[in-house]
Amino acid sequence: MDRLLLLTPTTQQHEFGIWRRLDHRIISDASSHGRVSIDIGDNVFVGNHRHGSLHRVGLWKARVGVWFEGFARGRCKASEACLESCGQRNCVGREWWDVGKGLLRRLSNSLSHRHLLQPGQRVLVAVSGGQDSVSLIYLLCKLQSSWEWKLGIVHCDHQWSPASRSQGSHVHQIAISLGLDYYQAVATRDVSGEGPARAWRYGILQRIAICHGYSAIVTAHTASDRVETLLVNLFRGAGLQGLQSLSWRKLLSPILCLSFRNGFVAEGVVESIERPGEEWRTIEESQISLIRPFLDSSRTEVREFCRLKELPLWLDPTNYHLDVCRNRIRHQLLPYLRKHFKRDIDKSLSRCAEILLNEQQFLESLCEVIRAKAELPYHAKYEGRKLDTVLLQSLPIALQRRIIKQFVENFTGRSIGFDHVERLRVSSLVPGERSQSRMSLPGDVELHFLKGEMLLLYKK
User: Fold this and answer.
1) Which one of 9, 261, 276, 302 is most buried, by most CB atoms within 10 A?
2) Euclidean distance between CA atoms 61 and 81, whole angstroms
3) Dihedral class, residue 377 (left if φ above 0, else alpha if ψ from -120 to 50, else beta)
């Protein structure tokens, strides 16, 4: 029987939807008995061939299985019947490896040289069904035997279009063909908007990873995604932290309780979560890493790879909605910049993001060392943390802002923006600018301005 897992048995369980864990063999048996719905719809593309609706599902499943079985072994094992029904007799074989060896070598080098993943690790791969994620799961499967990973696939259904259920079924079939565990999360409320969708998605990914023992979550963000994120954050007036955009590796901690009622505003920090068949597990004990190993590969390279390999892709129409800022950057701004300013503008911006990432990491490390000397525990009626503002006054403004941001975010578990940080800095460090003795912060926290100190306490 397929198991339906709710997030937690607490009041938060209905806020994030549900996910399924579907074992490969159970899926295969369940499909034959009609217990698993395979709804493909009209938008499934297999290579360059568009298939119709449900009466072609059997053929579609057969071809996906044939292709991924061939990929996993480095050769094509297509049956003659399948080739005849699809009208393809030029079965590609060993040359497939030659086409993909550049991407595969680059991926392997990134994983090892940057220490992104470890041998024998349990790795959860986020797959949407598009070209980036399907290419990534294929390449990771090629490396799986040498790294001895335990791979799993997770798909997040935001319910953005009527075809989203079919998209999930498409990813589900890929998981079957690869013999991987499959997890699917379905949003039970509206998650429109890039920010709320990201908050819901990463919260779900982290919960599934913790519940099923995965220590790393891998996403298929490419160099092109990195460039788009840099431009989005530049237009928002972001600093180095925003401009360095996507990093190769980051720790996901802590998990936030989010509220649908308030548009995914964080309401608290999840302190524990229940794993199937086990006791409740404390979140602080779980260090889940978010890995982006595709950041040195462009979307154009991946698209060509998919075309030559004829990978089974799902074309998501929401990627072409021009009311979304990121889509306008992708389809309008970047083509204009390539044509009128610099042909390889993507490469230049991606290099800029990498430089900013390295400088951001250095400054963060430097500020952590300084903060360790300036920050002390506060023990009185209520426990808290205090920061020596006399030491901060001797530092450059750029370091003052970073240390205050670290100080507040480490205590509250919430991210605060530039305007909030600047208010705190001016109120505590600039003489004559303090208009109040305390200030409310997210997470039921109060900041008190004392002589020579900033004090953080939880509200009574």
Assistant:
1) 302
2) 14
3) beta
